[in-house]
Design a protein that fits this description.
The chain is an all-alpha fold. 78% of the residues lie in helices and 2% in strands. The longest helix is centred in the first third of the chain and has 31 residues, at 2-32.
């Protein structure tokens, strides 16, 4: 009963904390002349990834490499497929050009780099330091130019000066901090309760970290993105997911490997399946974002369905169910080729819209 009570209370803290975080971040962004997208990619994304950082560092210090790595990989898959999918179902999401030009390609590069570093079965301390340096460079590259570009008050008049923001800055910063504290505490209680329930089912540590722990530590991102979309802050909703994924690989995994006594060991199962899935999911974002610069509701539904399919596969694998072979064949030879065909068709459609063929008269 105590575990269930903490689980429910943690959910309440997550929802309320996410609302405070989005509200405070939006006001600070307007006051400092920084766009909501940059705030979503940095302050909100890094703040909502605090649970992942705490859990992975604890796992690295405690010798639970599967927990440290699985939490990052599972969270990134959850962020894109589940959170973006569900958020797009709530409200179609606009995608800013900056995401297409810089942030999403960086997310793909970071995912591929994680796969490359894990190929030898260990993300060493040197690898971790290199990743951690990357998050410092990324944050600087976002904040420095954004601070020099004030946001116009009237979108119809780019020359119009920004209006003076209302409210006191210390109170707005306190609102952000309070939201972050509630997110961290709420996610911790949720994860503890979820692990207690999952362990009783006899599921392995890697599967628990890829599903229950990853989903639990990603609940701040889920609550923040959904509420941001409902409040009309769609830049924060999308930027939160992309920024969190970059932060998870460069900072969470980087610090876990750099500070952990022996780096982070990579399980063969994670190297063979889950890390490639994380990388492919990141790659999938780019063509879908480019086509129309809008994540439509049907695309959100596809993302959501993919996450359900991925979770079902993990459960079948954990229990060595007889249906695993058939399910795996269907995923490899039916679902993935169908996805490739769909993405290719969308890209071709988008190229034709942007570069129409000249008419016979023009020739």
């Amino acid at each position: 009963m105590i575990t269930l009570g903490l689980f429910i209370l943690g959910l309440v803290l997550l929802v309320f904390g996410a609302d405070q975080l989005v509200a405070g971040a939006s006001r600070v962004a307007a006051r400092l002349g920084i766009s909501s997208l940059v705030i979503g990619l940095t302050v909100v994304a890094f703040g909502t990834s605090a649970p992942e950082l705490a859990v992975s560092l604890t796992g690295a210090f405690g010798g639970q490499a599967d927990l440290a790595l699985g939490n990052v990989v599972g969270s990134n898959i959850f962020n894109v497929l589940f959170i973006l999918g569900l958020t797009a179902l709530v409200a179609p999401l606009t995608v800013q050009p900056q995401l297409i030009r810089f942030d999403v390609p960086l997310m793909i590069v970071a995912s591929g780099l994680c796969w490359l570093l894990a190929a030898d079965g260990l993300i060493s301390r040197v690898d971790g330091i290199m990743l951690a340096i990357g998050i410092v460079a990324y944050t600087t590259a976002l904040i420095w130019p954004a601070r020099k570009k004030p946001i116009p008050a009237d979108p119809a008049d780019p020359a119009a000066p920004a209006a003076a923001p209302q409210g006191r800055l210390p109170l707005q910063i306190l609102q952000i901090l309070a939201g972050l504290v509630m997110l961290v505490i709420g996610s911790r209680w949720l994860v503890d309760g979820a692990i207690a329930f999952a362990t009783s089912l006899g599921v392995s540590e890697l599967v628990i970290s890829l599903t229950i722990v990853a989903a639990g530590t990603s609940l701040p991102e889920l609550a923040t993105s959904v509420l941001a979309a409902m409040r009309g802050e769609r830049d924060i909703a999308v930027g939160n997911v992309v920024g969190s994924n970059i932060f998870n690989i460069l900072c969470v995994l980087g610090l876990s490997a750099a500070i952990g006594p022996h780096g982070v060991a990579v399980a063969p199962a994670a190297l063979a399946f889950d890390i490639p899935v994380m990388t492919l999911v990141a790659v999938l974002c780019l063509p879908l974002f480019i086509t129309g610069k809008l994540i439509a509701r049907w695309e959100g539904a596809v993302f959501f369905a993919y996450y359900v399919a991925y979770t079902v596969y993990l459960m079948l694998m954990a229990w060595q169910h007889p249906a695993l072979a058939t399910y795996g064949w269907a995923m490899k030879w039916v679902v993935m080729p169908s996805t490739a065909v769909l993405v290719t068709a969308l890209l071709i459609r988008d190229v034709r819209r942007r570069d129409p063929l000249p008419s016979p008269r023009a020739r």
